Amino acid sequence: MKVVCQREKLREGLAIANSVIPNKGPKPVLENVCMVATDDALELLGTDTEVSLRYLISDVQVKEPGPIVIPARVALDFVRDLSGDEVTLETKGNVCIISSGSDTCELVTIDPDEFPVISRFDGEHAVTMQGGTFARLVGQTVFAAAREPGRYAMHGVLTEIENDTLRMVATDGRRLSLATSPVDAPEGKFPPAIVPTKGMQLFCRVISDPLDRVHFQFGENQVGLKTAQAEIFARMIDGEFPRYAAVVPSGATNSMDADRELLTRKLRLVANVTGDEARAVRLKLTKNRLELFGRSAGRGEATAHMEVDFKGSEAEIAFNPDYVLEGLKNSDMDSVRLEFNEKNSPGKFSLGESHLYVVMPITIDVAPAAE
Q1: What is the tens place of the pLDDT at every residue in 259-287?
Q2: Domain boundaries defined on the chain
Q3: Which CATH superfamily groups domain 248-359?
Q4: Which of 62, 98, 123, 360 is 20 to 30 A removed from 370 (C-alpha atoms)?
Q5: Distances (CA, A) of 145 to 252, 297, 336
Q6: C-alpha neighbours within 13 Å on the C-beta side of residue 337
């Protein structure tokens, strides 16, 4: 194989491939990237067996077609530090020579037949939508997925398609985020799929233009996403996702509308004094007024106030401020709404036209010693 391509395009492709390829894989071959040169394109393949990638670099000069398999991390590091605009990849015997100007690197290759077979996107029964819409749904939900071990079914985003609507849900048991969007779905039934967090994040990373159409496909045991440059496949998580519909409150006696940016600043301000032993901020609501209070035995206490539109009787509720701040960060609205019944009932945040975020309250006492 011998290929000449632009350094920046190759660097970007290797960077995306390395986000899939493990540094220490269960098999040594998985720590490598497979490059296949055909016609005027170079395709990069990588996998960790759970998530797989095909990434296409176009407008390359293919002087000798063929595949090579080389260490992924070393290839990225070397290409990133090159100063030339063009890079030549050439195989000689069992080595691949990467060169740009007078700088060269020789990497030992592996037999391409040892590299795992990666699926191809067939387009059958695929859902089509704008890339920006897909990325928005992922951004509005994936942050709420579980990160601790032992909650395997919650380590991904539940994806459902029903009545031409794509719904994504993520939860870690203490908060839940749900977002929906209309899509162009072919006729037929789409079984629910739990997509790993890593797969969802990679899906978004290969969406280069939010206006481009992307194709989302459910397979028997994996889901796939196809963009103009890439095909990504993620193995579905096998497990039972929590019954999220029962968690979302259907009504509330207290409702607060607040400026998102101001609420973020005030909440962060008060959260500064809270410690790990009592990571909680109390929200006390009276007519058109919100008081936020936080306290830590080792740091002190802080209080902040802001005007809000509040409907209901005087009420209070406490949350982990990190959870609320993450939700506010992923809202696309200038104003957000919080609804709840009692201080020990879930709080429902409306963060967008079709974006709900439910946070369980903190039950510890965070009130001032004297008021």
Answers
A1: 999 999 999 999 999 987 778 999 999 98
A2: 2-114, 126-245, 248-359
A3: DNA Polymerase III, subunit A, domain 2 (3.10.150.10)
A4: 360
A5: 25, 31, 21
A6: 12
Choose among 218, 227, 42, 40: nearest CA to 130. Answer: 227
Task: Annotate 239-293 with DSSP letters as a single string.
Answer: SPPP-GGGTS-S--SEEEEEEHHHHHHHHHHHHTT--GGG--EEEEEETTEEEEE
**Interatomic CA distance for residues 124 and 103, integer angstroms:** 45
* SS3 readout for 25-50: CCCHHHHEEEEEEECCEEEEEEECCC
Q: What is the CATH number of domain 126-245?
A: 3.10.150.10
Query: What's this model's pTM, rounded to 2 decimal places?
Result: 0.90
Are the C-beta atoms of 258 and 338 separated by less than 8 Å?
yes
Beta bridge partners of 197: none
CATH number listed for the domain at residues 2-114: 3.10.150.10
